[in-house]
Structures are given as structure tokens and as C-alpha cells.
Write a structure and sequence with these properties.
By secondary structure, the protein is an alpha/beta fold. It folds into three domains: 169 residues, Rossmann fold (3-Layer(aba) Sandwich); 180 residues, Aspartate/ornithine carbamoyltransferase (Rossmann fold); 115 residues, no CATH class. It is 28% helix and 17% strand. The protein contains 16 helices and 18 strands. The protein has a four-stranded parallel beta sheet with strand order 2-1-3-4. It has a four-stranded parallel beta sheet with strand order 6-5-9-10, with helices on one face. A four-stranded antiparallel beta sheet has the order 11-12-13-14, with no helix packed on it. Helix 2 packs across helix 12, helix 3 crosses helix 12 and helix 6 crosses helix 7. The longest helix is centred in the first third of the chain and has 18 residues. It is globular and about 80 Å long. It binds N-carbamoyl-L-aspartate.
Amino acid sequence: MPDRFDWAYSTTLMTKPQPLTRHIVSINDLTNKEIETVFQVAAGFLRELSDSKIPYRIGRGTAIASKYILASLFYEPSTRTRLSFESAMLRLGGANITSADPAVSSAAKGESLADTIRVTSNYADVIVIRHPRDGAARLAAEYSQIPVINGGDGSHEHPTQTLCDLFTLRSKNKGLKNMKIAISGDLKGSRTIHSFVYALARFGATIDPLPAPGMELPTHVDRRLREEFRCRMVSKAPNQADSIDALYVTADQPHQLSLYSEPEIDYGLVLRKKIDAVYVTRFQKERWTEKERPYPKIDAKFLREGKYSHASVMHPLPRVNELDAALDNDRRAIYFRQAAYGVPVRMALISLLLHLHRNKSLHRFIGGFAESRHPIYAQPIGRGVHCPNSNCISNDPAERQYAANKFYVIPKNTKPGCILRCLYCETDIEAEAAAHFVAGDATRKTFAPGIGVLVHAPAEKLRHLTIYRNEAEAEAAGLAPRDRRKRAGAG
Ligand code: NCD
């Protein structure tokens, strides 16, 4: 068994040394090509190791991970994700160590996630983590020496579920292009939905949101779909100008497999096209204060509408009442197969992250986080503005000293010149909330209104800046208004 460090560095495909530790926190940490590689490898495992009677079930094993250990750190309930990860590791010939109940781990003694990860990353070769806080997987990755895979962090993302979802769609439709997918239920609280819509957009699918009342996609997800993944919102009732029903259609982007090239999108065609799959999600009651809300139910009656005649019915599971069990024998129901694919897909991901394949072309699956398209602004720990999401890991009192407030700086043409997006949970500080923000300069001991300076400031200068919520906060931190100082100097 080759040592993973030697392997990663010895391949001739690499022109320069790459960071060995690759983390999968968001579906956007994987390129489309890498996603296709995961599927290619998963399909290979299915070909070679499937149960002879059930082709979508892995029934046999290999020894390629025989000296490796997966650590499952689950701070929230799980059946499918944890068990399929652990089954995947065992089918690869590896071993598992598990902490699935925070009440019996050092979390109960108040240990921070950062410390738990620093310790665990010496006990295993890859970590899968599930946590109730948005952005927890990113914090874990920052403190880990080994690959961290996000098994679901709060309502942020669940990238490996999306890999299973796409793999299922791909096996059903023989491709991911040109699909129209309806997504139903709690689009706000479901992390599976957030990873899924980014991927659908990137692969050129049309998304038809069917949210429960008040559970639309979060503002920052909607913004990213439109601004980063070039989605267009199209009214489902084009003649009603005030209709809020909307479809997202992805425009063509270089290097991405998408259907419609921008000037030629035939919206009429998109609207008429039948639905390829309905993706149903549960009311995420653990993320809401109310325990019940009006909620759509997908059943035979719903699916009777002509546009659903060929629609596969998908669900990440568990289901509660939103998906009628009477559909289980319907030819369109594919949710149990979707759950079964958790094993080959996760076998593929683990084996690629650990560089276990002899085929050198698969060794390109390397690197740390994909380099951010936007500059990152990190504030000194304990100072400046916080992420507005109270469930973000950076707002967890136990993690505060390990998670500095860090933001992507997204330039905007409108005031205040940029949007700050939390690096952990990816929630945006909206422009209105930032209207009174001031930028403090620690070297000059001054502050000035606005945060536009973050867009243009060189990295060197960014380090001396702290963003405060308002002038009073900056003054309380011992800074003086830059203008006043200038005026005093002139006088
Ligand atoms: C999902 C999750 O945990 O986000 N389950 C899963 O991993 N398959 C969906 C859910 O809990 O509703």
C-alpha cells in the first residue's frame, strides 16, 4: 500500500507541489470536472462490487483503504449520512472511529470544535463532520491536518448529499444537462437544497422552486444563483407582471455544461418543458422556532398534473408527512435508490481524497480550498462586525476565540461598494445593514465612513483595517474620525 504523502507528490501530473489536504465543505469546492470524476469512480465501484441481484447496491468490498481510518464526528442526528460513510469506508477496506453523540464526547465538557478537530486529525486520515451550526465544517477544515468532508452543517450545505442526488439523476437520465427540476418544501432551512441548487445551476438545469409559505430560498443563495451562477429568474406566469412565481434558468457559461446560451434562451420552451424530477424536502423543524407550518404534500394527486408524468420523485430522507408513502411503489419514486447510492458515491469521494487510485489521471483530485474569487477580509479576533447569522459557528461563544470574523468582499456598483459574505456560513451582510459601517485603521488610529475601501485596499492594508458597525463603536475602540484628524492637522 503506497503512502499517501509519497503518492501525492510523486505523480508527474503535478507541476508544482499542491497542498495535500483537500476539504469538501461546499459543493462549490468541487469543479464540474471533479464531480464527473467522482461519478466515474462511483460507477466503477458499482460495476465491480455491486450485489449480483441489486445493481445499485454495493455488496462486496476491496482493500484499497486497508490502512486508513475515517473519523465520523456527528453533533446532530443522522442515519443515512453517517452509516453510508462508514459502510463506504468498510467496503474500501478501511476502518471507522465514531463520535456520534455529543453528550458522551468532550463537547459535553465544553471543548471547542477547533480543539476536537486538532486532536482527531491525529487519530484518522479523513473526517466527516455533521454539526448544527452553519459554517462549522469550514471552521473544522481550518483546524484540520486531514481532509474534512461536510456531512451537513446547520442549514448551510450538505455537499455529499448533492453528489448522491446528481449521481441518481445522472443514472436515470444519462446526463445532467437540459433538466428541469422542481424543488419542494423548506427551501430556506434545507441544507440539501442549498448545495443542490448551486450544482443544478452549474450543470445548466432549470430550477422550479415550490417553497412552503415563508420558506423561500435564503436571500444570499438566491443572490449567488443569479450573480455567480448566472441564473435568470423567469416568471412562471409571464403575462402577470407582478407574479412572484419564478423559475431559475441557467445561462451558458464557458467551461460549464449548460443548456441555454444566453441570447437564445427560449423562455416559452422552458416554461412548457415537463419536469424531470421533483425533489421533496422535510420541514426542518429543528431550524425553526415554530414546530408546525403549512406545508406542501407530494402525493399521487399532486403528480397527476401532466407536467409530472415522467418526473422522478426524489427525497434526501428522512421523510415525515411531506411525501406520501403510497408513492413508494410508483415507477417515478427513486428515493431509496438515491439513499443506496450514498455508498458508492462516498467510496469514490473518500478514495479520491486519499489518493488511493493507481490511475494517475485521478490524482488531479488535489489541492486545498479552491482559491476564492473574492478577496478575503479577516478581522482581528474579538473585534469588529460579526456575521449577521446568529446560528453561524463564528457566533458560537465556544468557538469565538478560534473563529475570527472573516468575510469575502464582493464588489458592488451600488453603495456601500461591496457586500461582506461570511467565510463560514456564506450569509451576506446586506447593504442596508452596512449603511452605517465605518472602516477603522489601526495604524493611523482613525476611522472613515463606508466599507468600499475593502475592495481596492491592497492585502497589506486590509490587515490593518477593522470594520465597525458605526462611529460610536469605532470611537469606543479608541479611534478618531479621519476628517477631524485632518482638520486638526490643517489648523
Ligand atoms: C438530510 C440532512 O440531514 O440534511 N438528510 C440526509 O442527510 N440524507 C435531510 C433532512 O434531514 O431533512
